[in-house]
C-alpha cells in the first residue's frame, strides 16, 4: 500500500503498487481479502477508482457499519501495509475510450467510485467524448472527490457535473434538499434522442429509481448499465 488519502469523514482512497498488474478497464472491480491471525478470512469487492495504469491501482472505500472489511480499510490500514487482491473483475459495467457516444453518469453516494474511474480514464486517453455526471450525496461534506471534480469541470469543457443533495445544501443552493428526481435529470442529463451511454451506480433503491426515471424519459433500457450495492454483502460500500 503506497498511500492513503482521506476523501470524507467516512471514506478514503488507498493507492496500491501492484507489480505485474495486467491493467484494467474503467468500471471494473477487484476482490480484497483480509485474513486474521486466527485464520478467519473475509472478502469484499471494491470498484477501481483509478484510470487504467500498469503497476498502480487506486480504491476508494467508504466505511460500512458492522462491515468486516471496510472499517479496516477506511480507518486502520496505513501506507506500507499489504493487501491480498484478485482481479480485475467484470466486463459489463465498463467504458472504453474508443466509444464515441455521449456518456451520462449517475452516482449515488460511494457509487461515484467506478464512474470516477471512467472520468479519469477519459482524461488519460485525451478523449473528447462529452461526459455528464449527476451525483446524489447527503450533504456537500459527503461528496467524494469534491476538489478533483471541481478542478476537472473548470479545466475540461467536455465534462459537466450536477449535484443533488438529500439532507443539506450549500448556502444559496437553488434546490431544496431532496432525492434525485425527473426534473433534475431532464435539466442536466442528456436528452434521450442523443442516445447516450448511461451508467448508474449506487444503493439498490437509488439505482432502480434513477433507471426508471430515465426509461420514462425515453432512454432505451438496453443502453442503461447499472451497478448496485447493499449495506452489507459482497459489494460492501460499492467501492
Automatic annotation (TrEMBL):
Source organism, top-level taxon: Bacteria
Domain spans labelled FAD-binding FR-type: 1-95
A molecular-function term among this protein's GO annotations: oxidoreductase activity
Keywords in alphabetical order: 2Fe-2S, Iron, Iron-sulfur, Metal-binding
Required co-factors: FAD
PANTHER family referenced in this protein's UniProt entry, alphabetically: NADH OXIDOREDUCTASE HCR (PTHR47354), PROTEIN RFBI (PTHR47354:SF5)
Entry protein name: Oxidoreductase
Amino acid at each position: 500500500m503506497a498511500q492513503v488519502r482521506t476523501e470524507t469523514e467516512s471514506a478514503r482512497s488507498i493507492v496500491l503498487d501492484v507489480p505485474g498488474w495486467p491493467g484494467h478497464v474503467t468500471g471494473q472491480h477487484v476482490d480484497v481479502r483480509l485474513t486474521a491471525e486466527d485464520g478467519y478470512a473475509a472478502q469484499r469487492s471494491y470498484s477501481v477508482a483509478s484510470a487504467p495504469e500498469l503497476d498502480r491501482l487506486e480504491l476508494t472505500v467508504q466505511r460500512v457499519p458492522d462491515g468486516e472489511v471496510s472499517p479496516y480499510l477506511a480507518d486502520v490500514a496505513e501506507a506500507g501495509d499489504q493487501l491480498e487482491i484478485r482481479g480485475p473483475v467484470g466486463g459489463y459495467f465498463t467504458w472504453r475510450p474508443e466509444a464515441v457516444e455521449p456518456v451520462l453518469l449517475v452516482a449515488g453516494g460511494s457509487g461515484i467510485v467506478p464512474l470516477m474511474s471512467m472520468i479519469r480514464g477519459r482524461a488519460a486517453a485525451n478523449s473528447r467524448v462529452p461526459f455528464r455526471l449527476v451525483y446524489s450525496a447527503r450533504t456537500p461534506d459527503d461528496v467524494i472527490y469534491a476538489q478533483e471534480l471541481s478542478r476537472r469541470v473548470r479545466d475540461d469543457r467536455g465534462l459537466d457535473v450536477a449535484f443533488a443533495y438529500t439532507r443539506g445544501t450549500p448556502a444559496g443552493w437553488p434546490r431544496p434538499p431532496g432525492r434525485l428526481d425527473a426534473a433534475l435529470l431532464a435539466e442536466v442529463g442528456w436528452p434521450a434522442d442523443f442516445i447516450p451511454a448511461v451508467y448508474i451506480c449506487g444503493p439498490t433503491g437509488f439505482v432502480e429509481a434513477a433507471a426508471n426515471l430515465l426509461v420514462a424519459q425515453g432512454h432505451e433500457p438496453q443502453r442503461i448499465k447499472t451497478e448496485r450495492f447493499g449495506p452489507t454483502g459482497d459489494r460492501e460500500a460499492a467501492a
